[in-house]
Amino acid sequence: MGFNCGIVGLPNVGKSTLFNALTATATAEAANYPFCTIEPNVGRVGVPDIRLDKLAQIAKSSKLIPTQLEFVDIAGLVRGASRGEGLGNQFLGHIREVDALIHVLRCFEDTDITHVEGSVDPIRDAEIINTELMLADLDNIERRLTALQKKAKVGDKDSQNQLALLEKIKPILEAGNPARYIELDEAEKVIFKQLQLLTGKPVLYVANVREDEAASGNKYTAQVEEMSRKENAQAVVISAAIEAEIITLSHPEERQSFLESLGLEETGLARVIRQGYALLNLLTFFTVGPKEARAWTVRQGAKAPEGAGVIHSDFERGFICAETVSYEDYVAFDGEQGAKSAGKMRQEGRDYFIQDGDVFHFRFNV
Predict the structure, then answer these.
(1) In what order do the strands lie in the sheet with 64-65?
(2) Which residues of the chain, if any, have pLDDT below 70?
């Protein structure tokens, strides 16, 4: 089960620098001109989770395997992308394929790095991208409506349901708001996801600042944070330049000392990864033993057999039960045996909803 976040923004805002730092590679060329990234670059990163370290310590696991999140570096969009400007159609197609968006906004002044709009204004930049995505969604909806109306007239139930939802979404977009603003019931949520609307995807705004402003932020980051609050979105302040420098330091002590010298407790990337993970409404469960402690990912609302299937399809097909201990009980009673002796281990069946932090042993028979 793969989950991914697309990194979007105008050209020269720091997308590729951020991507390089996230994946600790140089596969995405970072250069001072638009469209230096033509094909989307893809990288997978481990999701920081101190719970995994604690579980491994208790179980004396010889190996730690974090859950992973995929990041896709998508080339910079410009005004008119919805009409094909700047290879817009190709890039909008890449956005359609990701689960969530990391929207990088330039919040730093630098005369050596050109800005495609001629000045620094993160709110304007966000509006440019959001407008292009909304125009693309409106065009998509217009084309779908004609076909759906014909099918709905002859009684096709799926078409009727899709048509009703699109007719609710269209005025939201026409008013200049993203499709994710719509309130949905459970049945509509299923249809909404299938529509793959660009503005229906959850968004994390990343305010990219100079090194000396990473801890305190600046007037631009304050604007971004205010915008994100109005949208019920999230915002993270980072310095892509700092993150790029950190990955050149080989020892953890060096990295920590460097962060402390800048007034930072942790890397901005750790916050971006965690927020990106949270953005997708995911849960983490664990399997723990002497060989390895491993984190796994499922969607919120997943039941025990689905979690078993993430590990191996045979586990789901032959699911019998899940022996379960919460993370808190595992730690409080010093491991599996202690939790079992204290009566904290449970046997859960097919209808059990996985809780974040569950430690599982799956029983199955194929």
Answers:
(1) 64-65, 293-299, 282-288, 359-364, 319-325, 346-348
(2) 1-2, 24-40, 76-91
Q: Using the 8-state DSSP alphabet, how is residue 204 labeled?
A: E
Tokens 């579980």 belong to which residue?
Answer: 55
pLDDT at residue 29 in the model: 43
Contacts of 97 (CB under 8 A, 6+ apart): 6, 72
Q: What is the pLDDT of residue 2?
A: 60
C-alpha distance from residue 36 to each of 74, 86, 103, 176, 229 (Å):
10, 12, 18, 30, 32
Number of residues that make up the chain: 366
> Rg for the chain (alpha carbons), in Å?
23
CA distance 47 to 315: 24
How many whole angstroms separate alpha carbon 211 and alpha carbon 14? 13
| Phi, psi (degrees; rounded to nearest 5) at 78 | -135, 170
How far, in Å, CA of 231 to CA of 97, rounded? 23
Single-letter code of the amino acid located at 113: I
Cβ neighbours of residue 337 under 8 Å, at least 6 residues apart?
none
- DSSP at 303: B
pLDDT at 89: 56
